[in-house]
Structure prediction request, 348 residues.
Amino acid sequence: MTAQVVTISSGKGGVGKTTAVANIAFALAASGSKVVCIDGDIGLRNLDVVMGLENRIVYDIVDVIEGRCKLRQAMIRDKHLPELYLIPAAQTRDKNAVSPSDMKRVCDEIRPEADFVLIDSPAGIERGFRNAIAPADRVLVITNPEVSAVRDADRVIGILEAEEKHSPALIINRLNPDLVKQHDMLSAEDVLDLLGIKLIGIVPEDESVIVGSNRGVPVSQDPKSRAGQAFRNIAHRLKGEEVPFLDLDKQAGLWDRIQKMAGRR
Amino acid sequence: MWWFKSKRSAASAKERLQLVLIHDRTDLTPAELNELKDELIQVISRHVEIDPDAVQIDLQHDGRTQRLVADIPLRSVTRRRAG
Prediction:
């Protein structure tokens, strides 16, 4: 086994990096891959709570780097999926406790034992981001169809180009097909045209994502969730499988259409 | 009626982003672009006659490549002689 190290980054905060990491990790692990997630946001730990593993933390990534524990001891196994692990961020330290070469060393140690290492990058383009992209074989840039998120994604893509990282792929998150139809939201085509990189997934806006993170069970585990389906598709594409993109027009159910006709939406 | 009033704000988002991304990527402000345009006109005018007001210089993007596109109509020499 040689794990593929995949970093998820965005520049802007709040576009859904942590949610995407948790969902893609669950989807990969549910389809038989061994996955290790690393929370790269030192000081603002969050992946643990989104994955529902916050009560199991003993050691964190800084403990591994500073030699207070073995790598295995910091790898928290998921409650349901035995092939899914999390290495949490340190909560009481800052980003300078970790260097890009530390991250490379940790990932090199995991590589022989896993199929995927997913790194949740912090927002911004400073040290924490540099740490998160240093060991990456692939970077997924996540954005929302919204001016500030697209602009920041473009900055991140520019930095990745300058670092000569393997060409990043784009996740467009929280796309609202109704707003796109009304011409009040950038379409996936608009965002792709602006950013000029290849697409790996379009995730529709979906209330079930919040319900999932409330419970600590990502929506990619919910077969009925549209966003969950989109995240599962991204997981398949990461494995090199060809999966058609979702037809988001079908998203509006009968009830939505009745509400729309009644002028409530 | 209010529901017929489409704001169509997506088009303006895209237009604004196109401009801002080009300037972010090239680190060239609109003022610097104007300065470049003036200098180009001066240099070209030394060799051929042009109408400075008809000159168009724009930054365009094609995927992730930026391109400086100049459209510089030349004044016709024959017409000038006839006049």
